Automatic annotation (TrEMBL):
Entry's localization field: Nucleus
Annotated Gene3D superfamilies: 3.30.530.20
Any matching Pfam family: Bet_v_1
Family: Belongs to the BetVI family.
Organism: Urochloa decumbens
Organism placement in taxonomy: Eukaryota, Viridiplantae, Streptophyta, Embryophyta, Tracheophyta
Top-level taxon of the source organism: Eukaryota
Gene Ontology CC terms: nucleus
The protein's name in its UniProt record: Bet v I/Major latex protein domain-containing protein
Residue span(s) of domain Bet v I/Major latex protein: 2-157
């Protein structure tokens, strides 16, 4: 088996602490759900947000053939704003049929006043032992970053909701 990874960063026009709270703190997903309305139907959390916490995200069928993403928090360091989680169940979609395992690491770093950089790394193994084609790696990583950009758009448009 070949362990592979893909990393990508994106600038976000909101403070690191606020993005962490809204997208990665692990318990209150209300802003994430509002920001991704029509994309994500629900997020259920089992646990306190720390290691072992399980999140179950149901994807809107109009968005993807992936239906359910179930993840388990491996580590969450709120002070450093870094989280690692593993996908334990992926229902539906091309990636579910191709990937043997998937671990994501998310970090949020301040980048000046009112801005931050989000770095996503996806470590994965394919069932066939090969690396994903570049276009599939791009879809995989860009899917995560697309959610963050939706959160950014929502928070900018509704600043009073996240004060």
């Amino acid at each position: 088996m070949v362990a592979c990874s893909v990393t990508k960063e994106c600038q976000v026009a909101m403070p690191a602490d606020l993005l962490w709270k809204v997208a990665f703190a692990g318990i209150d997903n209300s802003i994430l759900l509002k920001a991704c309305a029509g994309m994500i139907d629900s997020i259920d959390v089992e646990g306190d947000g720390g290691p072992g916490t399980v999140g179950i995200m149901k994807i809107n069928p109009a968005m993807s053939d992936t239906r359910v993403l179930k993840t388990r928090v491996l580590t969450r360091d709120a002070a450093a704003r870094v989280m690692r989680s593993e996908h334990v169940i992926v229902e539906g979609g091309k990636m579910a049929a191709v990937l043997k395992s998937q671990v994501t690491e998310k970090s949020v770093v301040p980048a000046g006043e009112g801005a931050c950089v989000v770095k996503f790394t996806v470590e994965y193994e394919c069932i066939n032992g090969e690396q994903l084609p570049p276009e599939d790696e791009a879809k995989l990583i860009n899917g995560y970053l697309g959610l963050i950009k939706k959160v950014e758009e929502y928070v900018i448009a509704h600043p009073d909701e996240v004060a």
